[in-house]
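Lab meeting, item 3. Inverse folding demo.
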């Protein structure tokens, strides 16, 4: 087997100007890079977002969580105080829970600052600092890479704010996802999975902003599930109704009934496949892993093409400021 040699290339050969990199980062390949190298899946991205006097490079939300705001500050060259101030200003202005600073070279002083902030801010605040690099093997196209220099130590941060009950619940969730995620990945599904977390859900992108699937662990109702989460702004009701018109075909394809939740005046809607399997019962763990491996793929195959085929009316687009 022939092994190629990886050669470093200047990122400016891929994006001559920093704004071009920022534009690329909100495309599907750019978001995949953030998910792969930083472990953050982001949706609803906006460029040069300006709630105050300063425009932020990129603002988005963590996939499946409309309340979790992410701000991204990009910088060519070596980190400096100006961009550190911008990152913190944007995070405060947008009430962000996650801040990402991407540069070409990290100064030791700025690494120490981000590490210090990660230790001394609440568990709800996470800061990432990463170096942008690019490589080429032979005559291949240049490939970007994000080398993470700083990331939050969630175990250390949670010690200061969580109750014993919270710690036990979060530890149980993460431990279970650490079994479920690699089990599903070994089946080679047609999608990427997010890193195991302490949340009761694990999101799966369907490739359109405002829509994602989520695998769910719900001990309160002794159930597990997979839902299509719809959070596409003012055309949420229209999107839900278009999908509901295909209810019969979708449920026939899945050979299973779904719970269709328009959620009234709330920002989101949900279409849920539920199974009454108690995730707290240790004897159910293998059954649950098999269930997620099968039904995540079936739900993805059923909904991805239909989500991409959804049409926005002129009224929907106007309400979102797209006209």
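The presenter then showed the designed sequence:
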């Amino acid at each position: 087997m022939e092994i190629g040699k990886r050669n470093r290339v200047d990122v400016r050969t891929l994006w001559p100007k920093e704004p071009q990199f920022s534009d690329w980062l909100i495309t599907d390949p750019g978001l995949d890079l953030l998910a792969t190298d930083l472990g953050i899946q982001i949706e609803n991205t906006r460029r040069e977002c300006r709630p105050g006097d300063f425009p932020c490079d990129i603002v988005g939300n963590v996939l499946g969580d409309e309340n979790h705001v992410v701000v991204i500050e990009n910088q060519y060259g070596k980190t400096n105080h100006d961009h550190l101030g911008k990152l913190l200003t944007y995070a405060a202005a947008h009430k962000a829970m996650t801040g990402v600073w991407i540069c070409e070279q990290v100064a030791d002083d700025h690494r120490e600052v981000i590490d210090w902030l990660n230790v001394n801010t609440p568990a709800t605040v996470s800061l990432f600092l990463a170096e942008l690099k690019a490589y080429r093997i032979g005559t291949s196209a240049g490939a970007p890479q994000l080398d993470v220099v700083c990331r939050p130590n969630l175990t250390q941060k949670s010690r200061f704010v969580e109750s014993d009950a919270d710690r036990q619940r979060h530890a149980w969730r993460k431990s279970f996802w650490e079994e479920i995620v690699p089990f599903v990945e070994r089946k080679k599904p047609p999608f990427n999975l997010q890193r195991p977390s302490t949340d009761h859900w694990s999101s799966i992108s369907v490739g359109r902003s405002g829509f994602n699937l989520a695998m769910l662990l719900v001990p309160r109702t002794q159930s597990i599930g997979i839902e299509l989460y719809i959070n596409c702004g003012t055309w949420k009701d229209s999107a839900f109704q278009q999908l509901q018109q295909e209810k019969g075909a979708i449920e026939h394809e899945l050979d299973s009934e779904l719970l269709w939740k328009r959620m009234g005046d709330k920002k989101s809607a949900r279409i849920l496949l539920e199974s009454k399997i108690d995730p707290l019962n240790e004897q159910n763990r293998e059954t649950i892993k098999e269930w997620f491996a099968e039904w995540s793929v079936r739900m993805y195959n059923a909904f991805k093409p239909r989500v991409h085929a959804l049409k926005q009316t002129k009224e929907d687009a106007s309400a979102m400021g797209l006209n």
